[in-house]
Amino acid sequence: MAPFAQAEQFLDEIVAVVDDSVIMRSELERSAESIKKQIEASGNPIPPDDILNKQVLEKLIVQKVQLQRAEQVGIRISDAEVDATLTNIARQNGISLAQMRSTIEADGFNFTDFRDDMRKDMITERVRYAYANSTVKVSDHEIDLFLADNQLDQGEVDIQHLLIAIPDGADEATVEAKRAMVNDLRQQLIDGADFSVIATQYSDGQKALEGGRLGWRPVNQLPPMFAEEAKSLEVGDITRPLRSASGFHLVKLVDKRDKTTKLVDQYKFQHLMVASDEIVSPKEGMDIINDLYQQLQQGADFATLAEEHSDDVNSAPLGGDMGWRTLEGLDPRMGSIVENLEENEMSSPFQTDAGWHIVKLLDKKQADVTEEYKRQQAEQAIRQRKIQQTIESWVREIRGEAFVDIRL
Questions:
Q1: pLDDT for 62-84, tens place per residue?
Q2: For the whole model, what pTM was predicted?
Q3: Do residues 32 and 53 make contact, with C-beta atoms less than 8 angstroms apart?
Q4: Contact 223, 207 (CB under 8 A)
Q5: DSSP character string of 387-408
C-alpha cells in the first residue's frame, strides 16, 4: 500500500456507532461538504463547522436507523430504479445523464458516492411511507366532515419551519429551557435574523440543513395547527411558538397563492405487477420482473404478458389496462414514474410496498374536476396530513430506541 493511501486510511475513524452500523469521519466530511455546496448555492451563509457537523451527523444517524429498519423488512432498491430516478432528474433539468454526471464530478464529487446517496434516500423514503401507509386510515366520516368544512380549496403556501425538539419524558425544567430558547430565536427572527441561517443552526426538523424550507404545500395538507396559523399570516410573518408532541415550532410564510385550477391531469396506462408475499420474496420478484421486462424490450405484447403474469387482479384480465387515473390515486412511487413517462414509453422495473411493477403510459389528458375527484382529493389531503404526522412521530421513536454512541 502506498504511504499516502496508508496514512489516509489511518486518519479515518469512527465518529458514531448506530446499533450494528458505524459512521466514519470520511462519511461525515463528505456529507458535510455536500451540504455546504447546497447552502452556498442557495445564497445562505454557511454555519460554523461545529454546528454544521452536529446537524449533519444527526441526519446520518437518523438515516442509518431507517436503513436498518428497511433491511429488516426486506426493502431494496434495484440498480434499474436508481438509474431511472437519476435519468428523470437529469431530464427535468434539461440535460442527459452523462452531462449530469460530468457536472457532479466537476463540482468535486464522486458520482458513485452520489448514486449511492440517491439509493439511500430512496430506501429511507420507501420505509417511511411503508410504515405510514400501513398505519394511516381515513374513514368516510372524516371525508364527509372535511368536505362539509369546505377545506378542499384553501390555496397553497410556501413555508419555512423550525423545530426545537423536546425529548420524550422531559422534565418541566427542560421544557421551560426549550420554551425560552424558541422564544429567543423568534425574537431574533423578528429583529431581522435570516430564518434559513437560524433554522440551519438550531432546528431539529428534517429540513434543517435546507434552511427549514418546506416549499409549496396545499394548506389542507398541513398539520392542523400549521394550517390554522397559515390562514391568518401575511407573507413574511412568523408564527408564535407552536407546541406539539415533537416540541416547539416556528413557521414563516414565505409566499402564498390561490389554487384556482379546475382541471386535473389524468393518465391512461398499462400495469404489470409481480407481488411480494410469503411465497415470492422481493429478490425472487425482482428476478421475475426483470425477465418479463427483457421480453417486453424484445417486442413481447404488454397486454398479453400482463394477462398471463400480472398479480394485479383488477387490471390483469384487462391486459394491464388501468383506465384513466389521477396521480393522487396512485402509490407515490408509481405516480412519480407515470408522471415522468412520455406517451407510449415503458418504465423500467420498480418496487413499491406491494411488489415489483412495470407501467406503460398510453395517453394523458386534462379533465374537469368531478364530485368523485373532489372526494378523492379530500381523502388524499387527510391522508397526507396524517402520513406526515405519523412519519415524524415514527422517526423520533426509532431514533430514541436506537443505541447511539457519538464519538465526535
A1: 999 999 999 999 998 988 889 88
A2: 0.58
A3: yes
A4: no
A5: HHHHHHHHHHHHHHHS-EEE--
CA 226 to chain centre: 19
**Using CB atoms within 10 A of its CB, is residue 9 exposed (0-12), middle (13-18) or buried (19+)?**
exposed
DSSP-assigned letters across all residues of 71-111: HHTT----HHHHHHHHHHHHHHTTS-HHHHHHHHHHTT--H
Residue pLDDT, tens place only, 196-249: 999 999 999 988 988 999 888 888 778 888 888 887 889 999 999 999 988 999
Residue 2 CB neighbours (<10 A) = 7
Sequence letter at residue 282: P
Q: How far apart are CA 342 and CA 404, in angstroms?
A: 46
Angle (nearest 5°) at CA 48 between 43 and 54: 110
| Alpha helices, DSSP H, located in 203-314 | 224-232, 282-297, 302-309
Cβ 275 vs Cβ 354: under 8 Å = yes
